């Protein structure tokens, strides 16, 4: 077998800077209430850390934020789950290190592992794993995805999406959700699709299989508790990781409606098999805005004009008919104000260039995007004709039922209803205080 030394040429280091905020309490110290989550326009106060009991109470059951995850020693559910699936994971060795240094990795030219980082392979070679999703099957359709949230300054961006009545797919990092749970809730309340972007945002192919499992498992179980569904909204502690009860690789996946996106696109068939066993399907992209590069130490020469050109390249291709038979997926980020402003700036041009801009689940006619709960999405047809509302019913702490709706056709009444729901949730706990979690800011290059 021919071998070549594979060097990762486009290395991006996920540099995580710890900025531990002081832990302050009730008496005379800064008192940021959970209503901070709705402050708009963006500003420093939006990013003041707060304490939210459902997350604060559960923090000990989850891995340390921004550190590569491992199965918690006391977590017998996770251990049992891992024991039940590990026999299905292909015997492929880890590659490089978790910061994406693949120096010295010798990888055969025929790409036996379908390693996307090396070859952009999206069709697994191992048996029983579905192909990655990297396009939208519907013509002239754009799958609209944002990685790395929730970001504390996202309100202006989310307000913009709301004003355009546009839903997107948000691939959230578990560590960010721990820090910004109410911002994560806003994505759900606004009717966006929330998917998994791992716990700590490291290179998955470098990890031991058990740790890849943990990166996905704790993010998914966190999702069950906090992002999509009832527990956090009910103020329940989320101590029980989700038991997805998936006995076999073979049936795990094909019926699953859940997606994850691997940081840096770094997957091979070993990572895919682990995700598959957890009911998660891989989403990649065809067009990379590379918007994250601006202002990062790892790509000091990237300018805003470069990012404009990346967006424009996809728009030009659309205008030339490149998506007339099948649509595409863009990768952009909810990483910082620049990436979000760039998304806002290009939205009208994307609207003009594509017939439809949709969340990934909608583009695939997946109407129940989460494993549990009552969230219902429209089919593609329903979404584009505005004939069905997204709806989810959840019960808040005082047992009243809060119903949020977001129509796919513009309706001021419904937007009011949505923001009303957020206020209700907050005011039910406005006295609630701050800051227990040390807050880490993910500072650099991220994809
Ligand atoms: C969120 O965005 C702000 C503004 O651009 C940025 O300073 C901050 O680092 C981001 N937070 C995270 C966790 O990436
Ligand atoms: C979505 O469902 C419609 C029928 O409701 C069908 O015509 C279309 O091909 C489906 N698209 C995808 C991508 O499954
Ligand atoms: C779904 O909604 C029904 C009522 O509409 C409620 O009884 C049920 O508890 C909800 N389930 C979840 C998981 O929220
Ligand atoms: C949500 O609740 C409303 C009534 O409160 C009901 O009409 C609707 O069908 C429910 N939606 C779901 C998805 O359960
Ligand atoms: C319960 O929450 C609802 C909003 O969902 C609010 O209107 C109502 O006043 C609350 N009831 C109590 C007793 O707090
Ligand atoms: C949902 C939620 O966070 N509920 C909390 C509201 O505040 C009271 C008092 O601080 C807590 O006891 C609840 O757990």
From TrEMBL:
<dbReference type="InterPro" id="IPR050248">
    <property type="entry name" value="Polysacc_deacetylase_ArnD"/>
</dbReference>
<keyword id="KW-0325">Glycoprotein</keyword>
<keyword id="KW-1003">Cell membrane</keyword>
<protein>
    <recommendedName>
        <fullName>chitin deacetylase</fullName>
        <ecNumber>3.5.1.41</ecNumber>
    </recommendedName>
</protein>
<feature type="domain" description="NodB homology">
    <location>
        <begin position="140"/>
        <end position="363"/>
    </location>
</feature>
<keyword id="KW-0170">Cobalt</keyword>
<keyword id="KW-0449">Lipoprotein</keyword>
<dbReference type="GO" id="GO:0071555">
    <property type="term" value="P:cell wall organization"/>
</dbReference>
<dbReference type="GO" id="GO:0098552">
    <property type="term" value="C:side of membrane"/>
</dbReference>
<keyword id="KW-0146">Chitin degradation</keyword>
<keyword id="KW-0119">Carbohydrate metabolism</keyword>
<dbReference type="Pfam" id="PF01522">
    <property type="entry name" value="Polysacc_deac_1"/>
</dbReference>
<keyword id="KW-0624">Polysaccharide degradation</keyword>
<dbReference type="GO" id="GO:0005886">
    <property type="term" value="C:plasma membrane"/>
</dbReference>
<feature type="compositionally biased region" description="Low complexity">
    <location>
        <begin position="403"/>
        <end position="414"/>
    </location>
</feature>
<feature type="signal peptide">
    <location>
        <begin position="1"/>
        <end position="28"/>
    </location>
</feature>
<feature type="region of interest" description="Disordered">
    <location>
        <begin position="403"/>
        <end position="422"/>
    </location>
</feature>
<dbReference type="GO" id="GO:0000272">
    <property type="term" value="P:polysaccharide catabolic process"/>
</dbReference>
<dbReference type="GO" id="GO:0006032">
    <property type="term" value="P:chitin catabolic process"/>
</dbReference>
<keyword id="KW-0732">Signal</keyword>
<keyword id="KW-0336">GPI-anchor</keyword>
<keyword id="KW-0961">Cell wall biogenesis/degradation</keyword>
<dbReference type="InterPro" id="IPR002509">
    <property type="entry name" value="NODB_dom"/>
</dbReference>
<keyword id="KW-0472">Membrane</keyword>
<dbReference type="GO" id="GO:0004099">
    <property type="term" value="F:chitin deacetylase activity"/>
</dbReference>
<dbReference type="GO" id="GO:0009272">
    <property type="term" value="P:fungal-type cell wall biogenesis"/>
</dbReference>
<dbReference type="InterPro" id="IPR011330">
    <property type="entry name" value="Glyco_hydro/deAcase_b/a-brl"/>
</dbReference>
């Amino acid at each position: 077998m021919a071998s070549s030394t594979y060097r990762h040429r486009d290395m991006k280091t996920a540099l995580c800077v710890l900025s531990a905020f002081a832990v302050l309490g009730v008496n005379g110290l800064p008192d940021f209430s959970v209503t901070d989550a709705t402050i708009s326009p963006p500003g420093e106060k939006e990013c003041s850390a707060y304490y939210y009991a459902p997350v604060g109470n559960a923090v000990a059951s989850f891995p340390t934020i921004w550190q590569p995850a491992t199965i918690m020693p006391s977590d017998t559910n996770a251990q049992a789950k891992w024991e039940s699936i590990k026999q299905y994971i292909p015997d492929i060795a880890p590659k490089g290190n978790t910061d994406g240094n693949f120096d010295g990795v010798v990888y055969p030219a025929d790409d036996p592992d379908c390693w996307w980082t090396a070859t952009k392979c999206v069709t697994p070679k191992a048996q029983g794993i579905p192909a990655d999703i990297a396009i939208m099957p519907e013509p002239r359709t754009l799958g609209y995805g944002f990685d790395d949230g929730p970001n504390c300054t996202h309100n202006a961006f989310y307000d913009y999406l709301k004003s355009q009545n546009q839903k997107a797919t948000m691939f959230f990092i578990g560590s960010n959700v721990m820090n910004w749970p109410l911002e994560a809730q806003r994505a759900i309340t606004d009717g966006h699709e929330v998917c998994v972007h791992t716990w700590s945002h490291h290179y998955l192919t470098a990890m031991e299989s058990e740790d890849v499992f943990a990166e996905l498992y704790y993010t998914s179980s966190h999702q069950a508790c906090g992002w999509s569904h009832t527990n956090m909204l009910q103020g329940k502690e989320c101590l029980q990781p989700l038991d997805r009860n998936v006995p076999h690789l073979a049936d795990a996946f094909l019926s699953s409606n859940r997606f994850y996106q691997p940081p840096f696109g770094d997957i091979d068939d070993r990572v895919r098999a682990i995700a598959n066993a957890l009911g998660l399907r891989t989403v990649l992209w065809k067009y990379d805005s590379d918007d994250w590069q601006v202002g990062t130490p790892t790509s000091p020469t990237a300018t805003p004009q470069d990012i404009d050109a990346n967006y424009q390249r996809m728009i030009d291709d659309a205008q030339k008919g490149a998506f007339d038979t099948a649509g595409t997926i863009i990768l952009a980020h909810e990483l910082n104000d620049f990436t979000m402003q760039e998304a806002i700036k290009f939205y009208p041009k994307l609207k003009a260039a594509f017939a439809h801009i949709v969340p990934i689940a909608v583009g695939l006619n997946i109407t129940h995007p989460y494993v549990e709960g009552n969230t219902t999405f429209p089919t593609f047809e329903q979404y584009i004709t505005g004939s069905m509302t997204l709806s989810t019913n959840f019960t808040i702490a005082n047992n009243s039922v809060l119903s949020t709706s977001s129509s796919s056709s513009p309706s001021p009444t419904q937007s009011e209803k949505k923001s009303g729901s957020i206020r209700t949730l907050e005011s039910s706990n406005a006295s609630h205080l701050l800051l227990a979690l040390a807050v880490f800011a993910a500072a650099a290059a991220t994809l």
